[in-house]
Amino acid sequence: MEIERKFTVTRLPENLQSYPCHLIEQAYLNTDPVVRIRREDDSYYMTYKGKGLLAREEYNLPLNEQSYYHLREKADGNIISKKRYVIPIDHPEFDATYTSSDHFFVDQISLSVELDIFEAPFAPLIIAEVEFPNEEMAEAFLPLDWFSQDVTNDPAYHNSNLSTQQF
Hints:
The chain has one domain: Hypothetical Protein Pfu-838710-001, CATH 2.40.320. Helix content is about 15%, strand content about 45%. The longest helix has 8 residues, at about 65-70. The chain is mainly β. Strands 1, 2, 3, 4, 5, 6, 7, 8, 9 and 10 form a ten-stranded antiparallel β-sheet that branches. About 15% of the residues are buried.
C-alpha cells in the first residue's frame, strides 16, 4: 500500500545538491488501471497502481533493460523525465489531532521528501511527495515551510494524468 501526500513547492531547499539524486524516466502502458514502466538510474521495473489518491495499492515487478525499452515503444502519451532528490525530514511535525502514543512511533520512523523536478515538457513543475506508514500519520502531517499547495487529492498531479496532457 502506498500512502503519500503531494505538494507543490514555493522554493527549493538549501543545499539541494548535497542530497541523493536519481534520474527517472517513466512511461504509461495504461492509465486505468495504472500500469507504468520506469527506469531509475540503472534499475528498471513495471508498476501496477490501484485506484485512490492518498492511499492505493502498488505492486512493482523488476524488468531488465531490454524489456524496459521494448515496452517503452508501446507506451501511450508523454514519457516523463525528472530528477528526484531524496531529502530526510529530521523532525516531522503533526497537528494536535495526532495522539501522544503515535508520537512515540514517529520517533522510530524516518520520513523523507521525494522532490521531483520535472524536465520538458513539464518544466518548471516541481512536486514534493512524502510517504507514510499509515493514513492517520499522513493526514496529521504538517507541511514543511517550503511546501505550497497540498495537491494530494488533485488527480491532475498524478504522473499518469500528466502523461496524457497535450502540448
